Amino acid sequence: MSPPVDPHLIRQELAELDLARPLLPAADAYQAVYGLDLPQLAAVQRRMGRLKVHDYQVVTQLWLPPQPLGTLIVLHGYYDHMGLYRHVVAWGLGMGFAVLGCDLPGHGLSSGAPASINEFAEYQAVLEALLGEARRLDLPQPWHLLGQSTGGAILIDHLLHGEPQAELGQSILLAPLVRPRAWNRSRLSYWLLRPFVRQIARQFTDNSSDEDFLRFVRQHDTLQADILPTAWVGALDRWIRRIEGAPPSGRAPLIVQGEQDMTVDWRYNLPLLREKFGQAEILQLPEARHHLANEREPLRQRYFDFLRERLR
Description:
Blueprint: H1 7-13, H2 25-33, E1 45-53, E2 56-64, E3 70-75, H3 86-94, E4 97-102, H4 121-136, E5 143-148, H5 150-161, E6 168-174, H6 183-193, E7 199-201, H7 211-219, E8 227-229, H8 230-244, E9 254-258, H9 266-276, E10 281-285, H10 297-311
Parallel strand pairs: 3-4, 3-5, 5-6, 6-9, 9-10
Antiparallel strand pairs: 1-2, 2-4, 7-8
């Protein structure tokens, strides 16, 4: 088993992301643990940096092929971090894109209370900061956006409320969060518990049919949080009402949803997203669970093929 990753040590090593600065030892060892070193793609430059967003130190990562045709900007899901997104990174590089991502506040290598947030508006600030990094580094356009679960929620908010930006290409929502499953019951529990507790124990779920992934997350991933803060649930409650009350948008995201998903309430979410984005294209996968970024390879291949045809 690999030694635990020390986020504080890695953050101390990092400065602003610089294309001329190679990875230092701790960052290089971290990428090797999670398979982000991608030895099959030796020509790809790997870079890592630190970005201040509000009071957070956000750790960014960039994979840059020799002659990129565009850029894929990746936003991970709740409890996740970029270390779990090697399949998405490899697919983006295979498409000829530079790939830029970060760990959200309270996740992975970034600072912040574990798995918590004050308001979902802070996630928007992170997205805007990532877009600013793409602009500062002059990453090739178009900039496609991809978000899994909570990452998809961040993109939904951006599409409904953000200003159009000429650099942006497609927006890809993988199992996007609007309401989680059994939300009314969870919301009632939140209001009852809020005066008395700040967090409850996390319940790990079988959110993928890839048993190796589930085993790794539960037994070997030292960057996993084991709590559910009530502050995050409260922020989610306020954000859901913001999205439900938003007017429809002319944007046309690409949405992929598994029908065995027991994490988000996809039967509620998809009709709502069709209402908000009348031109959206939706691919439903009858066998897929929630964590599409880490589903079994045949299921990943099906939606990657769907996306590939639309990003050409």
